[in-house]
Amino acid sequence: MFAKEFLRDINKTSLLQCIVFLLAMCLFFALNSSAFISPINLCNILTASSVIGLMAVGATFVIASGCIDLAAASIMALSSVTCAWAAQNLHYDGLALVGIAVATGALCGLTSGFLINFTKAPSFIITLGMLSISRALAFILTGGIPIYGLEERVTKIAEMQWFGLSLPALIMLGGMLVGYLLLTRTRFGAHSLLLGDSQAASEAMGLRVPLLRLAIFVLAGCFSGLAGFIFMARTNSGDPSAGMNYELTVITAVVLGGANLFGGRATIFGTLAGVLCLGVLQNGLNLMAISTFYQTLFIGIVLILASLLRRFGPNNG
Amino acid sequence: MFAKRALLFLCLFAGLMINVGAQAANRCVFVLPSLANPYWQTVKLGIEDAAKENEIEATVLSVVNDQAKEEFVNLCQTAISQNPDILVVCTTADSITLRCLHEAQNHHIKVGLLDTVISDAAIKKAGIKLSFSVGTDNVKLGEKAAQFVVSQNKLATPKILILEGVIGNTCNACRVSGFKQELTKKLPKAKIVNSVSAEWDRLKALNITADTLNRTPDLNFVFAANDTMALGAVEAIRLAKKNNQVMVVGVDGIADARKAITAGRLTASVAQFPYLIGKRSIELAKECLHGQCSQKDEKTPLLVLTKNVLESHRDPLLKYVR
Question: Are A231 and A53 in contact (CB under 8 A)?
Answer without folding.
Answer: no
